Amino acid sequence: MLNVLKQLQNEMTSKDDQIRAKATHQFREQLEQLDVNQEESEFLIEFFLHKLSDPQSLLDTTYILLKLSKSQKSIHPTFIKMIQNKQIIIPSFSREARINFYQIFLNFPITFELASLILQSIIGEKDPRNILVAFQLCDAILQEKNIGSQYKREIFEFLDCYYPIEFNEKADPRFQIKKVEIEHILNKCLFSEVLLNESILLLQDKIVSAYDRAQGSALKSVMWIIKNQNKITITQIEEIFESIQKLAEQVIMDDDVIQLIPITLIEICNNESFKKVKAKIKTISLKTIEEIPATQQGFIYFNFLKLLVQNNEETIFQDIVQIFNKKFDTKNINVTQKRLENVISTIAEYKKYNRDFISELNNNQKSQLYDKLQQGINHKMQNVFILTLKCLADIMKYYIDQQQNLEIFLYNQINNRELLEQQCILDYFAKNGIVDIKQYQQLLNFWQENNQLLYDYSLTCSLYNIQDHFSQFTLNLINNQHPQIKSEQISALKGYLDNNTIPFQIRQNQAQLVINHIYNPLNKNRKNKLIKQLIQFILKQFAFSQNIIKDITIEYILNLEDEQLYYYIPLMDYDLNENLIQSIHEMIYKQDFIQKDVQIINRRYIYKLIYSCLSKYQKELNLNFPSISQMEILFNDYHLNQLQLYLIILRQQMVFNNEKVFEKLKELSQSHPQLIIQIIKHKEVENKPFLQKSIVEIIKQLNHKQTINYLINQIDEEFINDLANLEVMQLIIEYFNDVKIDKLKQLALIVNWCPLLNLKVIDQLAKLETNDIKVLYTLINIVMNNYEEAKYNLDLYNTGINLFKRYLNYPKRVVRQAAQEAINEWCIVFFKGL
């Protein structure tokens, strides 16, 4: 490397800026390919340290110093001296140069002298990429406790400025770092053993601050401390909890903070070292929901208690019921509703973790709970009645002796209640079953004649113990005797068929009844999406598909009405009869298939069924498709349904990179663009360059803008990663030249292509017009991202300025402001490069 330096010496000392910069870059490239011994590197470091005063080659010089420092055991003394004497002022350098210096510091063991240099160098850092490394340097100093203690005031003051970290990782694609990375290293530094006492005070201030982001970040830091810092004391945890208490008392709070408080408290309680604090938190939580349950504070502490249910040793239900039995007051409606909701929610939480809740109650508490709920069931307020009934539905199996009495009461009440209350009563019956089925059937008969709305709802309640009634409902449903089939009714039937408490054979017989009616060719079933969904569900749950498929022939299919064939489409997802597939294959190439035969013409679903069948099996069966020229004759009228079949042939031929296929596709793309995307996204094509070339040719043929827009909207990330090249991109961007963009979809695709963009494409991009501020920000990010790649290219600089200047007189102030900020940043970065 000394010989290389000697060869480039004249160029490196030239008075011409560009010659010096080029020589330094050449040296850097040579250095990347060779190893340097320690003796050589010491001399080279000395030389290039003095070259830092040359701004034209600054960035390359810092890269060279970083590379050379890796062969050194300790930091070069000249480097230390130059920083101490202010000959090198690292904060004044460009971002990339600063981060190179930070990386140099990371290469060496921390000493008192080096720690001092680091703290001088990282002051005022603002770029998130550099801040991340600056925090790593602080962490390295703090790992050396004696050194960290010496400089703890300086380190704390530096870190304090950044806490909590403000960084939107989605705002700028250049950063490519996660906020969680910066938060983790900042927490690691602030809450290290050296700084812990000072940082806990800072943490408490942030928890009770009026700034919601500070509150949220502080709570996340508490959780980090619990998991990662074992030096924290019980006293400090108690002080933190006191701050969280004050935070919970605030009236106005961000939703994220409301969610974080219970999670933070549960993290404290899950630590075995803080049992004393856990008991205090639980006591305060129970007291709060007893005294002020219908408040935000009560909501927060109740959510904490629910999280405790995850621990099998915790007995929360007993405490909740005791408060309910003691404080159930039907006069204050809000409080009454909240206490009922708390009981219902606690039961749901126990069920979520398969825990038995009723065993926590003694007989007296259990009896008292039912008595209080009886007060609620007699309440005139609708919400109290509904919540009480929901609660009874959860616990009634533990009060078998009371079930018939409650049922009689509900029978007497149901016709006098509002519809919502009636539906709630039916939901109760669906969940707990019916003792007096005869009386319930009398109610059904009455509703069928006098209350059709309630009768229809009763059919959706999945009343599994009235099997005869449900079977009759199934027959009526499939035979379309109901004027309208509702999604709730289909859901009820699915629920019945999927209920594991009913013997499998009974459910299978019920499903077979449904299938027999649907696939009976004598039944004239009307097309219905809900019935199709039901078929898909049944075929998945029960092994019926093969019994249906084995009897299907091509003659059978052609004799069915088109709407009947609609229900055969789901069968295409299963293994089909090979003879059926072969017969379809033979049939579609006969001359009479394209003639106006009564069996074929205008039949949408016969085409769809054939298309689905061939599309699935074209490769597996290795069918010999006819040539393109034959297909042109067979499908010369280009009916859309026939084209679907035609595309199967094209796809098969495209696997073998048939150039005639793409000639035909160019022709089809003008009239049927929605079909072309099926070809473009075909995954089995092996020759990628051939496909790229063909796509370019197809796009060139698309002169209709709506067609191009459709095509672009169908392109996804998979296409970009696999097939996007500069020529395809350039064609698409050219399409935008005279179009005003109001949506981000296509522009987002271009952002993903940023690494491929060149100056010509960016120049085209600068011609885009938009009235959407989000689109403008995206444009700014695209240009800035590629600007950095271009290494201070003057032409690119002018392109960017022209892009932003266009918006300086825009009517919207926010657009003008964004454009001005972009111009300012553009100029600053560019002139720093100079």
Describe the structure.
The chain is mainly alpha-helical. It has 48 helices and 2 strands. The chain has a two-stranded parallel sheet with strand order 1-2. Helix 21 (363-377) packs antiparallel against helix 22 (382-395).
- Report, as a whole number of angstroms, the end-to-end distance: 28 Å
Largest sheet: 2 strands, parallel
Rg computed from alpha carbons, rounded to a whole number of angstroms: 37 Å
Give me the side-by-side strand order of the main sheet: 1-2
Q: Approximately what portion of the residues adopt beta-strand conformation?
A: under 5%
Shape: flat
Report the helical percentage.
Answer: 55-70%
Q: Which structural class fits the helix and strand makeup? A: mainly alpha
- Total strand count, please? 2
Averaged pLDDT: 76
Helical run tally: 48
Regions with little confidence, pLDDT below 50 for 5+ residues: 594-598, 621-641, 736-745
Features:
834 residues; mainly alpha; two-stranded parallel sheet; 2 strands
Structure, briefly:
The protein has 834 residues and is mainly alpha-helical.
Give the helices and strands, then pairings:
Blueprint: H1 2-7, H2 9-12, H3 17-33, H4 38-50, H5 58-69, H6 77-84, H7 95-106, H8 112-121, H9 128-143, H10 145-150, H11 152-160, H12 179-190, H13 196-207, H14 212-228, H15 234-248, H16 255-269, H17 275-291, H18 296-308, H19 316-327, H20 333-352, H21 363-377, H22 382-395, H23 400-414, H24 419-432, H25 437-450, H26 452-459, H27 467-478, H28 487-497, H29 504-518, H30 529-541, H31 545-549, H32 554-559, H33 562-565, H34 578-587, H35 604-617, H36 628-634, H37 640-654, H38 659-671, H39 673-680, H40 688-701, H41 705-714, H42 717-723, H43 726-735, E1 740-741, H44 745-752, H45 759-765, E2 769-770, H46 773-789, H47 794-805, H48 813-833
Parallel strand pairs: 1-2
Helix pairs in contact: 3-5, 4-5, 5-7, 7-9, 9-12, 13-14, 13-15, 14-16, 15-16, 16-18, 17-18, 19-20, 19-21, 20-22, 21-22, 22-24, 25-26, 27-29, 28-30, 35-37, 37-38, 38-39, 38-40, 39-41, 40-43, 44-46, 46-47, 46-48, 47-48
